[in-house]
Automatic annotation (TrEMBL):
<feature type="region of interest" description="Uridylyltransferase">
    <location>
        <begin position="1"/>
        <end position="384"/>
    </location>
</feature>
<dbReference type="GO" id="GO:0008081">
    <property type="term" value="F:phosphoric diester hydrolase activity"/>
</dbReference>
<dbReference type="GO" id="GO:0008773">
    <property type="term" value="F:[protein-PII] uridylyltransferase activity"/>
</dbReference>
<keyword id="KW-0460">Magnesium</keyword>
<protein>
    <recommendedName>
        <fullName>Bifunctional uridylyltransferase/uridylyl-removing enzyme</fullName>
        <ecNumber>2.7.7.59</ecNumber>
        <ecNumber>3.1.4.-</ecNumber>
    </recommendedName>
</protein>
<dbReference type="InterPro" id="IPR002934">
    <property type="entry name" value="Polymerase_NTP_transf_dom"/>
</dbReference>
<dbReference type="InterPro" id="IPR003607">
    <property type="entry name" value="HD/PDEase_dom"/>
</dbReference>
<dbReference type="InterPro" id="IPR043519">
    <property type="entry name" value="NT_sf"/>
</dbReference>
<comment type="similarity">
    <text>Belongs to the GlnD family.</text>
</comment>
<dbReference type="Pfam" id="PF01842">
    <property type="entry name" value="ACT"/>
</dbReference>
<dbReference type="GO" id="GO:0006808">
    <property type="term" value="P:regulation of nitrogen utilization"/>
</dbReference>
<keyword id="KW-0378">Hydrolase</keyword>
<feature type="domain" description="ACT">
    <location>
        <begin position="751"/>
        <end position="832"/>
    </location>
</feature>
<feature type="domain" description="HD">
    <location>
        <begin position="508"/>
        <end position="631"/>
    </location>
</feature>
<dbReference type="InterPro" id="IPR010043">
    <property type="entry name" value="UTase/UR"/>
</dbReference>
<keyword id="KW-0511">Multifunctional enzyme</keyword>
<dbReference type="InterPro" id="IPR002912">
    <property type="entry name" value="ACT_dom"/>
</dbReference>
């Protein structure tokens, strides 16, 4: 029989406890104090109620403080949640008794004046985080009575006055049953009900009625609803369990997934406690122990999160991760910060939750049929079992489109089967049966040096990695089964590894697997935002395709080590590639791609691509057209897999420009001819677009003549059209200054384009005005027209979800820029008075760096500044360079999460490069000093 109650059997009146170690409140003392209040304020119910609420509020605050101290000592999340729940139980019990005794006594209650107070939902589960809601059901035998209404209202108002968030319902048993049948949320809340106080017979009757009238014969309906609800919750919070700022409660692999797992098990298998699933052979003892460990860890994190923030915060954001890591006792190791070690543990637990959920869910649904779930042998209606022998293997069979071991010995008899099973699953498009997953998990110790050196195992793995049949999904299954990290130990080291920065959205292993998925999309031509990569991947040599996939799989595999991960990763590749059967030459190509995998992105985004020396330097690194193609594809896939909105039209255009500027240098062609052809093609594309917009031919040609060739190569068509409309809007108006606003929802930025007369301080003024108005510059594209106008487009972090709110904010920033350019604002004064707003960025610290060299340009000195982002930084950098009597010829502004990387091409006032070591040192000192000023506090601000 399915029971609603947990194992704590409350009596009509809660036991009065002494203040034992672990009890958070002294109930005897509280009751004594309330009795004194009742005596002192007899006859004045209003004052009495207020005084009672204040006394209980003080007790709750003291109890929470003690709960936090105990959690810091023993670090047991489950125990902490039990203590808090028990404290709230006792508070409600004390209040219930007080109300019945002193406010609404009923000496001889009638049949209708009986009541049971029932904990439902999360509170009914018996575990409470410090700021969790309390859900109460006032259960009545029949309809509501005046006495019952008065008691319920008094208890609720008192609890609200203590600061508790209480949800409530007052229903009869018939009403509970009727609503549970109609509403799955109410049904789930009642499933976890727990008797607290009052008439136990009422609760027992509800339990019986719920089981017979609601649960019986409705398991399929309930499971379908819960699995659909889970999918929707994951969609809202982000599908991956490896998001670097996870939601502890609702995220994939979080507490709600554990709850869903138990709800389904409780409903289908008719159990009271998770340990009963062992008796039902759903979990083995190891899996149940894992369930408890996951629950304890996640509850500890959630309780610390509530204590630390002082509210019901469920998102484990950057600004609290380090503090929680310290609270939980994590320490720094070489190559990994304390916070990164904590988050790695978190993601490993999230993975374990996913494994447990998969074990149960696979019993109830066909894992990859996302329609109506198919309940298996535990359901009354079974899907007919369809088995077939896999023709090329006697060790595995297919059952209902899932691969299953033919017998219990397949892995022990031949450990290569631990790789072969995935190869067959990929070849025949089969999901993995939960029994096969369990058998693999129990056989991981068979993956030893002998298996890793097996020629057959490595051949199968390379086939999986380079297959055209969805390699990302199969590799992810290997990773979740624990096989991938064992077979490739270097990969095992980055499983669940988080990089503590705001740029990367996923853990390292998740990023690598997503990169493989992006490559597959490119081969299918499905990467619509990366046409160059779609084209190039079909132009590389057939043998190079394998090298590209191997390099993609390994490019970040050395993250978390004390040394540069690109260099260490190349060393890993030189060891692993021969094992996979690659030749020495192919191994060296893979190692080169890994060692140089960041170069193209860096050059494209932070170098002057119109400077011939930039292209020559990059070509010297690449050395061949085939390597250029491979590096271009790898670079695009790497950026695309970082996270949503990171890859965009501007970056695509910059990478495209760098590729086509470099290709003729490598082939020995005359690059200027090639460049002229590409500029002409860009002109033709623009003419065609403007004809569709019915621009007069002479206007189109005049506009083309106003912009230099570099503009036509670096800017995508959409922005060219918008810029043309802006320039035309000011023609004949007599204005020399104009702004336009555009929202880029994919990147979560607002683009602000400024047209103004060009002068050396222009960028500095724009940056200062943005800082003054609270605009956070994360990117900038800066161009000059042939008639002396500057056309600058800056990207600002979006602040508001609604476009109309964001439009008003952008209008204020644009107005500030125009006022500053007209000289109506004194920027140094305004910017210095603006306090940095609080934000996630305050959680980070970065060592600033300034690099000055003359190797990337024949005409200019390149000054590269990298450091922690903060309000007004770009303004201060440009203002400082100007005060040092340096002319800024071009600037390349980028922000990678919390890290600002700004590159300036400068000359002295005579137009010469800065070659004097003394002067270079002075520039370095002045720029570094900007990061060490007392007011240069970390905070979200301009790039």
């Amino acid at each position: 029989m399915a029971s609603l109650a947990l194992d704590r059997d409350s009596t009509t009146k809660p036991a009065v406890s002494s203040n034992r170690n672990g009890d958070l409140i002294d109930t005897r003392a509280i009751i004594a104090d309330l009795e004194k209040l009742a005596a002192a304020k007899r006859g004045n119910d209003i004052e009495l109620r207020a005084a009672v609420a204040q006394r209980l509020k003080a007790a709750l605050n003291e109890g929470r403080d003690k709960a936090e101290r105990l959690l810091l000592q023993d670090r047991q999340g489950r125990l902490c949640a039990e203590r808090i729940c028990r404290m709230e139980d006792e508070i409600i019990g004390i209040l219930f008794d007080f109300v019945r005794k002193h406010l609404y006594p009923s000496e001889n209650p009638s049949e209708t004046e009986h009541m049971a107070i029932v904990a439902t939902g999360g509170y009914g589960r018996g575990f409470q985080a410090p700021n969790s809601d309390i859900d109460l059901l006032f259960l009545l035998p029949y309809k509501q009575t005046a006495w019952g209404e008065q008691v319920a209202e008094t208890i609720l108002y008192a609890l609200w006055d203590t600061g508790l968030k209480v949800g409530h319902a007052t229903r009869s048993i018939d009403e509970c049953i009727r609503q549970a049948k109609a509403d799955m949320t109410i049904r789930t809340a009642l499933l976890e009900s727990r008797f607290l106080l009052g008439d136990r017979k009422l609760f027992d009757e509800l339990v019986t009625r719920f089981d017979t009238d609601v649960v019986r014969n409705t398991a399929a309906q309930f499971v379908a609803a819960k699995l659909t609800e889970r999918e929707e919750r994951h969609r809202r919070s982000g599908q991956s369990r490896y998001l670097v700022e996870p939601n502890v409660k609702d995220g994939k692999g979080g507490l709600r997934d554990l709850h869903t797992l138990f709800w389904i098990a409780k409903y289908v298998y008719r159990v009271r406690e998770p340990e009963e699933l062992v008796k039902r052979d759903v979990f083995d003892k190891h899996e149940y122990a894992l369930f408890r460990r996951c629950e304890d860890f996640l509850l500890a994190v959630r309780c610390h999160l509530h204590f630390l923030t002082g509210r019901a915060e469920e998102r484990l954001s950057f600004d609290v991760q380090r503090e929680i890591a310290v609270r939980l006792g994590y320490t720094e190791h070489p190559g990994m910060q304390d916070v990164e070690r904590f988050m790695k543990h978190y993601f490993l637990v999230a993975k374990d939750v996913g494994d447990l959920t998969a074990i149960l869910s696979a019993e109830l649904e066909d894992s990859h049929a996302k329609g109506a779930p198919v309940l298996s042998r535990v359901m009354s209606k079974l899907r007919p079992v369809k088995r077939k022998q896999l023709g090329d293997s006697k060790d595995f069979i297919a059952e209902n489109n899932r691969i299953l071991c033919a017998n219990a010995n397949v892995f022990k008899r031949d450990p290569v089967n631990l790789i072969r099973i995935f190869h067959l699953a990929q070849k025949h498009n089969l999901a993995l049966h939960p029994d096969a997953m369990r058998a693999m998990t129990r056989s991981l110790q068979l993956i030893d040096a002998k298996l890793r050196d097996s020629e057959e195992a490595n051949r199968l793995f390379l086939d999986i990695l380079t297959s055209k049949r969805d390699p990302e999904t199969v590799l992810r299954r290997m990773n979740e089964a624990g096989v991938l990290g064992r077979f490739v130990p270097a990969f095992g080291k980055v499983v669940a590894m988080m990089q503590f920065n705001m740029y990367h959205h996923y853990t390292v292993d998740e990023h690598l697997l997503r990169c493989i998925g992006v490559l597959s999309e490119m081969e299918e031509g499905a990467a619509s935002d990366a046409p160059l990569a779609n084209e190039l991947i079909h132009k590389i040599k057939p043998a190079s395709r394998t090298l590209l996939y191997v390099a993609m799989f390994l490019h970040d595999i050395a993250k978390g080590r004390p040394e540069d991960h690109s260099i260490a990763g190349a060393r890993v590749a030189r060891r692993l590639c021969p094992r996979l059967g690659l030749s020495a030459a192919d191994t060296e190509t893979v190692a080169w791609l890994i060692e140089q995998h960041l170069v193209m992105s860096t050059v494209a985004q932070s170098r002057d691509l119109s400077d011939r020396k930039t292209i020559e330097n990059f070509a010297a690194v690449v050395q061949s057209v085939e390597r250029l193609k491979l590096l271009t594809i790898l670079t695009i896939a790497d950026i695309k897999a970082v996270g949503p909105g990171v890859w965009n039209g501007w970056k695509a255009q910059l990478v495209r420009t760098l590729y086509f500027e470099t290709e003729p240098v490598l082939t020995g062609g005359f690059s200027e001819v090639n460049r002229a052809q590409r500029v002409a093609a860009a002109h033709a594309e623009f003419r065609h677009a403007m004809q569709d917009r019915q621009w007069p031919t002479e206007k189109v040609e005049a506009h083309i003549a106003r912009l230099y060739p570099a503009y036509w190569l670096k800017v995508d068509l959409g922005h060219k059209i918008e810029h043309a409309d802006l320039l035309r809007s000011v023609e004949g108006s007599g204005k020399s200054l104009a702004t336009s606003i555009r929202f880029d929802t994919a990147r979560a930025v607002t683009e602000l384009t400024v047209l103004a007369p060009d002068h050396p301080w222009l960028l500095s003024i724009i940056a200062g005005a943005c800082a003054m108005a609270g605009g956070n510059i994360v990117d900038a594209q800066i161009f000059t027209t042939t008639d002396g106008q500057a056309l600058d487009t800056i990207s600002l972090s979006r602040e508001f979800e609604r476009d109309d709110d964001e439009q008003r904010r952008a209008d204020r920033i644009a107005s500030s820029i125009e006022k500053a350019l007209r000289g109506e604002l004194r920027l140094p004064d305004v910017v210095s008075r603006r306090a940095p707003p609080k934000g996630r960025i305050k959680a980070f610290s970065l060592e600033p760096g300034v690099d000055i060299n003359n190797q990337w340009s024949h005409r200019y000195t390149m000054v590269e500044v990298a450091g922690l982002d903060r309000p007004g930084l770009l303004y201060e950098l440009t203002a400082t360079l100007s005060k040092l009597n340096l002319n800024i010829a071009s600037a390349h502004v980028a922000t990678f999460g919390e890290r600002a990387v700004d590159v300036f091409y400068v000359t002295d006032l005579m137009g010469a490069q800065i070659t004097s070591p003394t002067r270079q040192a002075a520039v370095k000192r002045a720029l570094i000093a900007l990061f060490s000023r007392p007011d240069a506090r970390p905070g979200k601000g301009a790039a």
